Amino acid sequence: PKGEKDLSAEERLLHAIFGDKSREVRDTSLRVPHGGDGVVRDVKIFTRANGDELQSGVNMLVRVYIAQKRKIKVG
């Protein structure tokens, strides 16, 4: 475990708000690859509870659609 001195500003804030419960939190966010940017156009959530057919071992699937502007290239 990290000591109090090793905490980032976000971790110190979480520790101040929630106490020791925040130590179990990890950032598992997915990021757009470097050089990719855009606007989120749609988010679709598929779950077994809604009757969606998912692969075995998958309980929830989230698809994020991003609109990107690109320069037109030949080829």
Give your account of this protein's structure.
- With 75 residues, this protein is α+β, with helices and mostly antiparallel strands.
- It has two domains: 1-30, no CATH class; 31-70, no CATH class.
- Helices cover 13% and strands 23% of the residues.
- It has a two-stranded antiparallel ribbon with strand order 1-2.
- It is flat and about 55 Å long.
- One of its GO terms (biological process) is DNA-templated transcription.
- This is RNA polymerase beta subunit.
- Residues 10-75 form the DNA-directed RNA polymerase subunit 2 hybrid-binding domain.
- One of its GO terms (molecular function) is DNA-directed RNA polymerase activity.
- InterPro entries: DNA-dir_RNAP_su2_dom (IPR007120), RNA_pol_RPB2_OB-fold (IPR014724).
Key descriptive features of the protein:
single chain, about 80 residues, two-stranded antiparallel ribbon, 2 strands, about 15% helix, flat
